[in-house]
C-alpha cells in the first residue's frame, strides 16, 4: 500500500491504496529510475499532474505544433548537420 507522508504542518491526509503487485513493482521501478526519493514523492507528483495537468503557454503549444509540422515535412536536420552549419563543435 502506498501512503502519503505527513508534512510538518500536519495539513496532509494519509491515504491507503490497493494496487496489483505487478503494477506496484513497475511503479517502484519507475520512481527509482526517474530519480525520485520515494514512492510517495513519485505518486504525489503523478497525482498532481493528473489533477492539475501540465500547463503550457499558447506560444509554447504553437511552437510545438510548428516543430511537429517541420518534422513531418522533412524540414529538420541532424545535429551533425546543424553543427556544421553553425560552425560549432558541440
Description of the molecule:
The protein has 90 residues and is an all-alpha fold. It is 56% helix and 0% strand. It has helices spanning 21-33, 39-52, 58-72, 79-86. Helix 1 crosses helix 2 (39-52). The longest helix has 15 residues, at 58-72. The protein is elongated, with a radius of gyration of 21 Å. Residues 1-6 have low confidence and may be disordered. Residues 80-90 have a biased composition (Basic and acidic residues). Residues 68-90 are annotated as: Disordered. Residues 14-51 form the Ribbon-helix-helix protein CopG domain. This is Ribbon-helix-helix domain-containing protein.
Topology at a glance:
Elements: H1 21-33, H2 39-52, H3 58-72, H4 79-86
Helix pairs in contact: 1-2
Q: Can you tag this structure with a few keywords?
A:
mainly alpha; CopG; 90 residues; elongated; Ribbon_hlx_hlx; 4 helices
Could you write a compact summary of the structure shown?
With 90 residues, this protein is mostly helical. The protein is 56% helix and 0% strand.
- Helicity level, as a percent range? 55-70%
Query: How would you sum up the global shape?
Result: elongated
Structural class: mainly alpha
Number of strands: 0
Q: Are there runs of 5+ residues with pLDDT below 50, and where?
A: 1-6
The main β sheet shows up as: none
Specify Rg, calculated over alpha carbons.
21 Å
Proportion of beta-strand residues: under 5%
Amino acid at each position: 500500500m502506498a501512503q502519503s507522508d505527513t508534512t510538518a504542518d500536519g495539513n496532509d491526509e494519509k491515504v491507503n491504496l490497493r494496487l496489483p503487485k505487478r503494477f506496484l513493482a513497475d511503479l517502484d521501478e519507475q520512481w527509482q529510475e526517474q530519480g525520485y526519493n520515494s514512492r510517495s514523492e513519485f505518486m504525489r507528483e503523478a497525482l498532481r499532474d493528473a489533477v492539475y495537468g501540465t500547463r503550457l503557454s499558447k506560444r509554447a503549444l504553437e511552437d510545438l505544433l510548428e516543430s511537429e509540422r517541420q518534422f513531418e515535412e522533412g524540414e529538420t536536420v541532424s545535429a551533425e548537420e546543424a553543427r556544421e552549419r553553425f560552425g560549432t563543435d558541440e
